[in-house]
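Much of what follows relies on a compact textual record of a protein's fold. With that in mind, consider the following protein and its fold in token form.
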Amino acid sequence: FTESTTFNFRSYKPSTQTKLIICDILGNIIKEIKINSEKFTFNRENLANGIYIFSIIENGNFIVRGKMVIE
């Protein structure tokens, strides 16, 4: 994506303990954002172009992990 991307949770309802963690390719945490709705838009802001790993975590448990490319 270039400016923003939207996460939609169809079969999962985030709790107050749900967060999105963005890491660089080396595993360094770049951003940590609380999620509190079934639809969440992530804005790139000042992230450089590149490959990032995202994790959705709730109460310390991984819900999903994936890769995103910012161009």
Q: What stands out?
A: Residues 13 and 59 are 13 Å apart (CA to CA).
